[in-house]
UniProtKB/TrEMBL annotation:
UniProt superkingdom: Bacteria
Descriptive protein name: Divalent cation transporter
Transmembrane segments: 24-46, 58-76, 103-128, 140-162, 174-197, 203-221, 233-255, 308-334, 354-374, 386-409
Molecular function terms, GO-annotated: monoatomic cation transmembrane transporter activity
Species in which this protein is naturally found: Egicoccus halophilus
Record-level GO cellular component terms: membrane
Chief localization: membrane
Domain SLC41A/MgtE integral membrane residues, every copy: 62-192, 272-404
């Protein structure tokens, strides 16, 4: 059935899966590690329900903050993967080395987007008439949470790049799930830590004001940097990240506005981080694979996907089935183990994730292919655009798919 859907004989699909068995195992293992991490994030989200109610606007900020960590560091991992493939990567972290310049660009983007996420979460909430804390408070939370989580993710990405270069791993297969999971795992607690600054309002206002200044200065200096690589990364990334953070804020607002109605059962809250993270991870893995093939000339940036791209889609479908089954089962188990939570039946949880995953896999495949090929066709680096576009698209589309599945199946 899958082969007919892709227009490829099933024997070729099976043969490609056997050829890429190492990638399938690596991808499935990475998704498994990511699932464990994001389930913890889901439990944290469920446990922080009272804190989220006390700080209006924070729930709208969470997908943007998490999405930006995944977008910035997922794109960094994708660029390092391409650097390993093309021989540019050097494991030594020096300022003028390939790795050092990539880290500098990601640092600039981390400062800029942390401020931007707070501003947009506040502005869109106000525009839609939703309750929110003052602008400087939200910027302060976003800045502190963003920088704390970024520190952790720098260590994760650098370690992965060095190990991949040493062991011959493909970061295209393992980078996106592990980076996304690490971002989900550390960003939500970091935001909750950042929210503690509100206990001393003058400090919160000072940090928020400083964040606004630093965010603007970081973008200006990065865009005018004399190093061509850093300048290109910042200029190309800021455009797509601005779009991405806006979409992520809208995803947060969808969750915030529908939380009481669609996620009335606390067990369903557990599904939000792992489901959205898996959507972004699967799309990121596909986008990264396509970007690498475009860079080395194995793939043409055609309007409609060719045979090789369709075979990569088939790998994504296989991994998606495994991933969303894991999300449903692990979400049910987490709800069973957490005290004072009424778990839903296992089949209900699996039904929600399977149906939502069926909707999501077609969206993420289309988004990944369009982002990679369109950016390449117009002379941009698909490593800078693919993962941020796919991650942001799936943050919003993933929430909508999950809400749609819950509504259709009348779960909770």
């Amino acid at each position: 059935m899958l082969g007919r859907l892709l227009g490829i004989p099933i024997n070729e699909v099976r043969g490609y899966w056997m050829q890429e068995s190492r990638s399938i195992r690596a991808g499935a293992s990475a998704l498994g590690i990511g699932l464990f991490a994001t389930i913890i994030a889901g439990v944290v989200l469920m446990s922080a329900e009272a804190r989220l109610e006390d700080i209006p606007g924070l729930l709208a900020l969470i997908p943007a903050a998490i999405g930006m960590r995944g977008s910035i560091f997922g794109a960094l991992g994708s660029r390092l993967s391409t650097g390993i493939l093309t021989g540019e990567f050097e494991p030594e972290l020096r300022r003028r080395s390939y790795l050092g310049r990539q880290i500098e660009a990601a640092t600039i983007l981390s400062f800029a987007t942390a401020t931007q996420a707070g501003v947009l979460a506040w502005a869109i909430s106000v525009a839609l008439g939703l309750r929110t804390v003052p602008l400087l408070d939200l910027v302060a939370i976003s800045l502190i949470g963003g920088l704390l989580s970024s520190l952790v993710l720098f260590f994760v990405v650098i370690w992965m790049a060095r190990r991949s270069n040493l062991r011959g791993w493909s970061m295209d297969d393992v980078g996106a799930p592990i980076i996304t999971a690490a971002g989900d795992l550390v960003t939500l607690p970091a935001l909750l830590v950042g929210s503690l600054v509100l206990a001393v309002e003058p400090v919160a206002m000072a940090v928020g004001a400083l964040g606004l200044v630093v965010g603007v200065v970081a973008v200006v200096l990065g865009a005018r940097r004399d190093d061509a690589m850093i300048r290109r990364i910042v200029r190309e990334s800021m455009i797509v990240l601005t779009i991405a953070v806006s979409i992520d804020v809208m995803a947060g607002i969808v969750v915030e506005s529908r939380a009481e109605e669609q996620f009335s059962a606390p067990a369903l809250l557990v599904l939000i981080p792992p489901f959205i993270a898996n959507c972004g991870s699967l799309g990121g893995m596909l986008s990264s694979r396509l970007a690498s093939k475009l860079h080395v000339g194995l793939l043409e940036p055609r309007l409609l996907p060719g045979k090789l791209a369709s075979l990569d889609f088939s790998l994504t479908v296989l991994l998606a089935f495994l991933a969303f089954t894991g999300v449903g089962a692990a979400g049910w188990l987490a709800a069973v183990l957490v005290p004072n939570v009424d778990p839903l039946p296992l089949l209900s949880m699996l039904g929600v994730t399977w149906l939502a995953g069926l909707f999501a896999v077609f969206v993420l495949a289309a988004a990944a292919y369009a982002a990679a090929t369109t950016s390449f066709r117009f002379g941009f680096d698909p490593d800078n655009h693919g993962i941020p576009v796919v991650t942001a698209t799936m943050d919003l589309a993933g929430v909508i798919c999950l809400v749609a599945a819950i509504t259709i199946l009348q779960v909770g």
